[in-house]
Design goal:
With 266 residues, the chain is of the alpha/beta class. It is 47% helix and 14% strand. It has one domain: 2-enoyl-CoA Hydratase, Chain A, domain 1. The chain has eleven helices and nine strands. The longest helix is centred in the first third of the chain and has 17 residues.
Length: 266
Amino acid sequence: MSLLVDEERGVLRITIDRQARMNAVDLATMSELGELIIGAETRPEVRVIVLTGAGKAFCTGADLAAAAAAGGNEASPEVVMDRANDVVRAIVDSPLPVIAQVNGPAAGVGASIALAADLIYAADTAYLLLPFTSIGLMPDGGASAMVAAAMGRVRAAELALLGARLPAAEAAAAGLITRCVPADRLSDQVEAVAAQLAAGPRRALQLTKVAINAATLTQLDEALAREKTGQSELLTSADFYEGMTAMLTRRPPHFDGAVLPTTDPV
């Protein structure tokens, strides 16, 4: 099982458990994660969702090794993007409060999943990373909207264009996550917050979440559509093949500087 599920006192805890891959997710895991989040809203006994990772990482993005092993035939780029977008939309649209317990690196779509949560608590040893351009891709999972909404265009560009690592303390100072917590206190912090939410008024919490998201994530749907179009193109490009091969063989990539399309893809 790639996902561990535990429910206690109104708290549904979903743990990504692919430790051999630093909790990088394959398509099946992504699909299951979205289904679990959507299914939770129909269960009156569930009052809050906690997302976290097993071991040393939260989630280090898509499992490119699994995709390479499948010979690129795991699914079409459009289906891959749909599954990632489904998870982000499930988190944002869920009537339940969703907490991300970022116990370690959150990279690629793993960062997008964390940032989609309503409350994000990260260990002081954790960091966020948008490494997409280093393998010939662009940010996805709504990251182009969520990071810019929280940090502004210039800081978002630094993270996305340069693939700069953002330590949890800096992410908290920039307003990108809720709080940076000493690693040995992270579980206690999240458990206390989850218990408070689970004991709260479900409908009032739901409407509060809806109101905040409506005011702050006004460009999320457009961002997901742009990312799907752009990423679907890039996932079939020579630059992505080179970037993925370089990453898997632990060597620097050598991009060929492919000419960009002459028209806007969206």
